[in-house]
């Protein structure tokens, strides 16, 4: 039988499990106050490293006077940044939807 104290205890346990005390090292993060899982942080750090690599490669290609290659690499970098933002918004929307499905009221 579900009682109010059992429900409050389950909610407390869920909040403890979902709370992470370490910070994201995300440079492009616009929402640093939201907690995210380790997998999310790892994925976005990898995305950011790839974006940084493309920016460095475009700077090197500009140094060697390959303007077309530099423009292509900057364009790919912007597409990756856009994909990263869209992916983050989709994940946050799914997480909010899951939280709304929790049985919080009796």
From TrEMBL:
TM regions (residue ranges): 41-63, 69-87
Keywords, comma-separated and alphabetical: Membrane, Transmembrane, Transmembrane helix
Protein's name in the database: NADH-ubiquinone oxidoreductase chain
Taxonomic source organism: Olea europaea subsp. europaea
Lineage: Eukaryota, Viridiplantae, Streptophyta, Embryophyta, Tracheophyta
């Amino acid at each position: 039988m579900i009682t109010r104290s059992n429900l409050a205890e389950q909610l407390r346990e869920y909040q403890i499990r979902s709370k992470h005390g370490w910070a994201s090292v995300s440079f492009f993060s616009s929402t640093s106050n939201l907690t995210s899982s380790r997998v999310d942080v790892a994925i976005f750090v990898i995305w950011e490293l790839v974006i940084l690599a493309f920016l460095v490669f475009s700077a090197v290609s500009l140094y060697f006077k390959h303007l077309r290659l530099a423009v292509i690499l900057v364009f790919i970098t912007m597409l990756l940044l856009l994909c990263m933002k869209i992916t983050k918004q989709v994940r946050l929307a799914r997480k909010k939807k899951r939280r709304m499905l929790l049985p919080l009221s009796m």
